[in-house]
Amino acid sequence: MSIRAPRIEFAVGAFLLLALASLLVLAIASTNGNFSFGGSTYEVSARFSNLGPLRQNAPVKVGGVTIGKVAKIGLDPVKLDSVVTLAIDSRYSDLPADTSAAILTSGLLGESFVGLKPGGDPDPLKDGDEIFLTQSSVDIIELVGKYMFSGAADNAGSSGNTSPDTADEAVPDYLQ
């Protein structure tokens, strides 16, 4: 009986150490995203006027496929634009130089990510280049507020006359 006890204790201890090591690897991989086994990247930057809920380590996608991540977010002190540095996997080094970038959201209230749309330029993006064609994040709360309050202001000022006097009044404000 005394010979078996040390073997069982050793097996339980080894299992416990293996479980703790697995938990540590999982924690490192899920928190900072820098725990990877190889794979080089190149960095390009893009300027946005509004980042919305975009955060560091957010995915960079082309057609729904993740090809990189947001490496750094900063502010240009001269132009006061947000500068986002994208770390793109070097397997995708053939992205055209006229690629456009937009801050998009997965679903209605999902995570934000940077979506890239490749252009047609034969020259590829290189390390340190800047993406000039950008589209900032759309603030859904602001859009809903504008829609609600602009509609309420138009309805409150009407005098009951529903027929427009001129052709300009027949066209809604957002189409003019």
Automatic annotation (TrEMBL):
This is Outer membrane lipid asymmetry maintenance protein MlaD. Coiled coil: none annotated. Residues 41-119 form the Mce/MlaD domain. It holds the Pfam family MlaD. It comes from the Bacteria. One of its GO terms (molecular function) is phospholipid transporter activity. Residues 154-176 are annotated as: Disordered. It comes from Marilutibacter alkalisoli. The gene is mlaD. Residues 166-176 have a biased composition (Acidic residues). Residues 156-165 have a biased composition (Polar residues).
